[in-house]
C-alpha cells in the first residue's frame, strides 16, 4: 500500500509514522492534546483541530487530552467550558483521562518562573505597554534593552514575589524572559511571561493575582502531560523557537515537539472569536448556537451531523500551506450524509387548499410510503389521505407553458405516493387571489398509470388538511453574502446577509413528524433537508430548521418536481 493510501492528505500522519519507524516514538505512545481557550464557543476551524488531534490518537493507538488554556480569567466562563466539552463529545470523541486545565499547573509554572529568575534569565520590568512596544523594535530594527533588564537576581525575586502577593497594580510591572532584544524573531525579544491581573479565576478562585502568558504556559503544560506531538496552526510557527527555548531552559519532565498545520479558512464565513462574539453581542444572531453561526453548536442546531463534519475535515486534509476552502465542499458533505441517512417526509410551507370534489367527505385512507427510497431499515410511513389537502402555492397555476410540470387548471398532476388529480376550478378572494382549487381524482391511479393512459409529467407533495399538523419552519441561508466578509480591511458587518433567516409559521407536515425527537433529520421531499430544532421543537409546537437545499444552490428553497 502506498504512503498516499496510508496517510491520505494529512502530512502529520506521515510525521508520526516516521517517528515510529525511526524509533523516536514507541507503538501506542503518541500523546496529543486539544487545548482550546474557554473564551467563546468552538467553530468549524476548531472542528478540524479536534478531528486532527483525536484522529491521530485513534489511528496510532495513542491518547488525546482535552486541556483548557485558561490563562485569561477576564474573558473565560464556565459556560464556554461546558459547551466545548459537549462539542467534543458530540463530534464522537472522548479525551483520555480527566479534563485538564492550564491552571492545574499554575504552581509549577510559578516555580518555573522563579527558576528562570534565579538563573538570570528573567526579570521584572516596569516599562509601560507603550514603552515596551517602543523598546521592542521592528522587523528591520533591533530592539533596545529595558532599563530594568540588569536587576539583580535577589531584586527580581523580591519584586516578582511582591507581584504575586498583590503589592502592585495591574499594568505596573511584568515578568519578562531575558533572551535577545536583537533577535530577528520578535517573539524572542524578552517576551512577557507573567502579568498582574487582579481577577478571580473560575478554577483557582482568588489564589492568584498574576497569570502566565500563553507562550509560557503552552509548552510547559505539554511537558507536564507527556505530550509527544504538540500540534498548532501556522500562526504559531514563529513562536516555536520560544516554545523550545523555554523547554531547554527549564527542568521539564519531557521535551514535546511542536508541529504546525494550515488553519481552516472557508469563504462566506468569519471564524474570529472576537467577531463571532460581536455578532452575538450586537444581536445580529440569536446566540452562539444560532444555526447561521459557524460554531459547532450552531452547525449542530442547523442540522449538520458529526459524520458530515468529520468527513469534511478529512476531505479538506491537513497541509502546511494556507488556502480558502469553498463553502460548497462543506455543503456537499452534509448533503451527501443526509441523502443517505435522512428519512423522507412531506411538508407544505406555503399552503394552498385543494378540495377533491369526487372524494367522499367522510373518507380517510391511510396510504403507505417508504421511509427512504434506498433504506429498507427505515421502514414505511403512513400518510392519511382525505378530501381536502394542502399543496404548495407555487405548485399551481391557472395557466402555464409546457415547462411548468406541476398542477395547471385543466391538466393533471400526480400527488407523491397517492393519486392523479385533474384541476377543474378555482375559488378566488375579493382581490382575485386563488384561495382554493377544486379537483377530481382518478381512484384507479394509486400506484398505477391513469385509466385514460395519460401520464402526468409532474409530481407534487401534499399534506392532508384534516390530519396534517401545523409547524414552524426556519429557512436559513448563509450569514454573509460576500465570499470574504472580513478581508481587505472592510467592516465585516456590512456583508451580513439580510435574508439569512426566513420564518414560516403556517407550514403543514405529515402527522408522524409531531412525534419527531429533537435533532431528528428529514428530507422534506422536493424541498431540502431539515432538522427538528434541539431547543424549541415539541409535539405541541413542531419547529424544523432547514439544514441545506437539495442541490448545490443557496438563497432559495428547491421546489422543482
Describe the structure.
The structure is a single chain. The protein contains 13 helices and 27 strands. Among the domains are: 3-104 and 217-266, HUPs (Rossmann fold), CATH 3.40.50.620; 106-213, Alpha-Beta Complex (Glutamyl-tRNA Synthetase, domain 3), CATH 3.90.800. The chain has helices at residues 3-7, 11-21, 44-59, 78-90, 106-118, 129-136, 153-164, 214-225, 240-249, 273-281, 296-302, 306-316, 327-341; strands spanning 31-34, 63-68, 100-101, 122-125, 174-177, 192-196, 210-212, 229-233, 257-261, 344-345, 347-348, 351-356, 365-370, 380-385, 388-392, 396-397, 407-408, 412-415, 420-428, 434-442, 459-460, 463-464, 469-476, 501-509, 521-524, 528-532, 543-549. Residues 1-6 and 553-561 have low confidence and may be disordered. β19 and β20 form a beta hairpin. It starts with a helix and ends in a 12-residue tail after the last strand. It is 25% helix and 23% strand. The strands form 7 sheets. It has a 7-stranded mixed beta sheet, with helices on one face. With 561 residues, the protein is α/β, with parallel strands linked by helices.
**Strand arrangement, largest sheet?**
10-25-26-27-23-24-11
Measured as a percent range, the helix fraction is: 25-40%
What's the rounded overall pLDDT mean? 94
Q: Helix- and strand-based class?
A: alpha/beta
CATH level 3 topology of the domain at 3-104 and 217-266? Rossmann fold
Q: What does the oligomeric state look like here?
A: single chain
Query: How many strand elements?
Result: 27
